[in-house]
Amino acid sequence: MDYERPQFFRVMQYADAAAGDVIDMVSGNPDWEPPGALRDGLVEYADGDPEQFQYPASEGLLELREEIAARRNVALEQVLVTNGAGEANHLAMAEGLTRGAGDEVILTDPVYPYYAGRTNLLDGQARYVAVDDDGQLDPDAVREAASEDTALVVVNSPNNPTGAVYSEATVRELVDIVEACDALLVSDEVYDHFDYGGEFTSALAVDSAHRVVTNAFSKSLAITGFRVGYAIVPEWLVDRFRTRHMLTNVTSSRPAQYAVWQALRETPPDYYGRNREMLRERIVAFTDALDAAGAEYTTPQGSFYVMARFPDFSGTMANVERLIDEAGVAGMPGAAFGESRTDWFRFALVTPRAEEAAERLAGYFD
Amino acid sequence: MDYERPQFFRVMQYADAAAGDVIDMVSGNPDWEPPGALRDGLVEYADGDPEQFQYPASEGLLELREEIAARRNVALEQVLVTNGAGEANHLAMAEGLTRGAGDEVILTDPVYPYYAGRTNLLDGQARYVAVDDDGQLDPDAVREAASEDTALVVVNSPNNPTGAVYSEATVRELVDIVEACDALLVSDEVYDHFDYGGEFTSALAVDSAHRVVTNAFSKSLAITGFRVGYAIVPEWLVDRFRTRHMLTNVTSSRPAQYAVWQALRETPPDYYGRNREMLRERIVAFTDALDAAGAEYTTPQGSFYVMARFPDFSGTMANVERLIDEAGVAGMPGAAFGESRTDWFRFALVTPRAEEAAERLAGYFD
After folding, report:
1. What domains does chain A contain, in order, with CATH numbers?
2. A233-265 burial: b if 16+ Cβ within 10 Å, else e
3. What is the DSSP track for A163-216?
4. Could you read off the pLDDT of B134-193 as tens digits, one per residue?
5. ipTM
6. Whether A29 and B55 lie within 8 Å, measured CB to CB
7. Between A42, A54, A228, which is nearest B42 by CB?
């Protein structure tokens, strides 16, 4: 696969420009409310002294880092606040590829396209391991692909686009593999709050100097535009991470960091639970209606994406455009995520009209 | 010079931990008020629909890009909003060093340390051209240093730390030099609003496919913590810049972008003029008091830094710490900026107590 720029924005532009009413299931942009405390935090910040408007510490606002360290039960030193999980993943991949421990990057197929794009950008060699039909990753297949050339293994659980949640055994084996070949595991856990079966295990559960955990508040607080994420890095990598972060971004945006800190402190657990339940219901409604369309689909264990395929209608960009124009439903082409899902489409359940969308698809393929 | 992590944060930490009252002249953090419209913009943003909290376009909020394009008289397409000038410079240097047109980076001495750190990070070879005593860069010296190995020439005018403002002739010659050796000129103009003699010329004045202009609202709107900057890039680089930005940061923080957009629209020119006048007065007060200390110093034509040196007291980190502990004044060591100013200190005029600081220094060296 040759990724340049991920195609999300291209599909969104096409959908925006379409003539009719289009149900947008393209992006991973939550459509639900951010916590009230987040809005309040921003208003409170706006009233601060001039000093509050200046550079925070490069590694992030201390209060926010403390809150993250306490929640994740790690040393404060290991927490670096980044410009979203995007920067955290970028830093981790850049470190993995510049430490002289190989240039291969093991990715899953299907893959979250940014990982593939970054591998190209950073001159790594992507090596894809296909997941099974349920999106599960077989650690033995990863072990087989791994070698002394392996610099990185990059995974995402709960997974975008498959909805798979990796078992604790898988996570342990992945750590074991990177340790054996002196590589880094990058475990992107940005959908950790959207785990419907309670099976999710963070890579933090396995102590290792070879794993970097990345995350963000983009999905859990419904603020993809705020760009507040973090990396939890092993001690030997702390200085290198901070240096690269400083020389890339100096620091992350402070109003957003402050608002997230307030939201973390003030938001009751119920907020997260309610959104999870709402998504669970959307998944049921969407997949029930897909049954009527004669579609095959995945039922996500986590995240908020459903992959579906329709008879004689491959998952190309051209067919995405046809669905936008002729069915009024915008999804992502499976081909954007790799070789193994080229027959499929990915639908993001970020609209209250998910069921209606499935009905439109049923009508279109009738 | 071997820069790893710029030392600003280290000095700030030392000053914060000091026992007595310390006048902070370390960072480039404005101490004056951001515009009221910026605060209002943030409050207005906080009240938006959930949709407003999600990813803006990767290249930045359209309204903000339009405002920048109109002000700088460039095509909208050429404007990319970044996480401060820091990211803009990072992207430009990364592009210059990965296009296969050399690996040397021509920097000035003294240098803004982030440029040197990025050169190391990106595997470039730094080549320093010393400026004269007034901080002026001799284009002939740059021409002599330039060769087919030159990937980048990175300059900053108005300059940090020297306060020099380059003439239009210098800017034209720099563009001519990078064109001749197929390199990129990165012109960081973040202090453009702090030009006391009216001599500043943006590199935008010279049309060329070889120059990237970077800037930010950090200084002009007194919001270094917001991380809103931009790059203006030649057309052939637009796609590459966007791709690298997307794969590094996805996009920049939206609340900050929105607030800056509002501030740009609503803030009268008087805001900028008043701050410039205030700084002009601080410079006079500070340098007058330095005369009493028997110090040599530079009088900045632009930016808001004064470099000073004192008899038999070199510009080392150890002496910076002595000035913090014994004189109650925190500055930056000249050694942090290169080989040519190791006898000097840099003082940032970001405190209403600038005159008092100079008096303390006079007392200390008396």
Report:
1. 8-34+270-364 (3.90.1150.10), 52-266 (3.40.640.10)
2. beeebbebbbbbbbbbbbbbbbbbbbbbbbbbe
3. -----HHHHHHHHHHHHHTT-EEEEE-TTTT-BSSS----GGGS--TTEEEEEE
4. 999 999 999 999 999 999 999 999 999 999 999 999 999 999 999 999 999 999 999 999
5. 0.96
6. yes
7. A42
